[in-house]
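User: I'm putting together a small comparison set for a docking exercise, and I want a reference complex before I start. The sequence is below, and the ligand is glutathione. Could you produce the 3D structure with the ligand included, as structure tokens?
Assistant: Of course. I'll restate your input first, then give the structure tokens for the complex.
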Amino acid sequence: MQPPIIYGLPFSQPVRAVLWLLLNKQQPFEFRMINPGHPGKNGSRHADYLEKNPAGTIPCLEESETGFSLGEAHAIMTYLCKTRGWHDLYPANPQDQARVDAYLHFHHRNVREASMMVAARVRKDLVFSEEMQANSQRLFRQAAEMLDSHYLSSSAFLVGDSLSIADFAACVEVGQLSADYTNILDLSEFPRLSSWLERMKSVRGYDEVHFPLKQIGDIRDEPPSIDTLRSANVEGLKILTNAVAQFSHNIQ
Ligand SMILES: N[C@@H](CCC(=O)N[C@@H](CS)C(=O)NCC(=O)O)C(=O)O
């Protein structure tokens, strides 16, 4: 099986969730940069890209042997787990699997709203009114409260005591808001969520997928410049390329 191609940007949250899974499993992949929202060549609204993912969003997976392509981060992650037998991260048992799926569905318009708070500071091509930003913060806080008081009330990870792809999906959203990175929201009022974030730091692949955020740093009061964003993605790509080269070398 040829390594899958992943289209996206290293800074994008759903892209980072997919990359984290691949890095965690030390699965070689080829990464191709795509500019979200842009109609030009290498943009997510270009006709060539829309043929692969009609939604015009990143990430997208492509398999070169068959030409199979797939958008939506969670569909990509479950597909990778099913086709590669990664049942440690996506259980084979239907009930356990369904609980992971339930989180992945819940995530949208809930935990994912974290990114709207970030996008309001970094997407200069889009307009986010004060009302939209306040609404995102309200929805995110509600979701964080649910993770804290329900999902993590009696287990180390979101779905039981072992890591699953639900944790990758959630962590790339929640973690970016913390004082370690953008510093947009104080998460200390969610103690279990904060402990879980600490736990996620020792999961293989964490450092690589958080590298672009580290580069961008605190943006609570001051949005990052275009140059900072560009450099975070370019440097992020180098980190990914090096990581893949390293474990591909170890496999041989
Ligand atoms: N539900 C999609 C969301 C993907 C998404 O929103 N990606 C953003 C970048 S983080 C994007 O491609 N936006 C395109 C645009 O703004 O036009 C997924 O999970 O893959």
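The chain has a mean pLDDT of 97. The radius of gyration is 17 Å.
User: Thanks, that's exactly what I needed.
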